[in-house]
Amino acid sequence: MSASAPYPEFWVRKLRSVFVMFDHDLDGIVRKKDFVDFCIARAKCLLKQERMQTFEDQIHNAWDYFWAGPEKKVNVTLGDYIYNHARTFREPVFQREQRKWFSVYFDTIADKNGDGIVTRKEYEEFLGLVGVHPLSVPPSFEALDTDGDGQISKEEFANAAVGFFCCTADTPAKLFWGPFLA
């Protein structure tokens, strides 16, 4: 997909949903400080101290690579966010970076007890880090648990995360970040 081609409507809808999760004042801008501070404040209630530094590093890296884009913006509009994630279609390395980032996130943040799987409770806490209400978790969890074994493996987690950002079709990965907000 070229930069000048229109982006698929469903894909834009998914990205808009994530964007509004962090546009708390609904002014059409997500600021780095707001994104980072919000996630870190929520994490302090949900993560043990030994995981906090890893989480903080991951959140800063997520902003720098996925939100701010090559221009390293500190204020991002929805258009900027969509354009930055459209690198998924233009730069093959972007998908690999997403998979790598979410694999690290799985190991260090989502899989809280380190047993190689994410339970419904762990997934609820993971989504809680970005402000998703616990009642929204069951349908998301079930969508990601593709083999129906009642837990999410690292592969299921990473596939759904990358699928959310990279797939233009309506797939279960659409629920990776919880229900659509916009």
From TrEMBL:
| PROSITE patterns per the UniProt record, alphabetical | EF_HAND_1 (PS00018), EF_HAND_2 (PS50222)
SMART domains to which the protein is assigned, alphabetical: EFh
InterPro entries registered for this protein in UniProt: EF-hand-dom_pair (IPR011992), EF_Hand_1_Ca_BS (IPR018247), EF_hand_dom (IPR002048)
Alphabetized GO MF terms: calcium ion binding
Return the CDD domains for the record. Answer: EFh
Domain EF-hand: start-end pairs: 111-133, 141-167
Cleaved signal peptide residues: none
Top-level taxon of the source organism = Eukaryota
Keyword terms: Calcium
Question: Keyword Disulfide bond on this protein?
Answer: no
Name of the featured protein: Sarcoplasmic calcium-binding protein-like
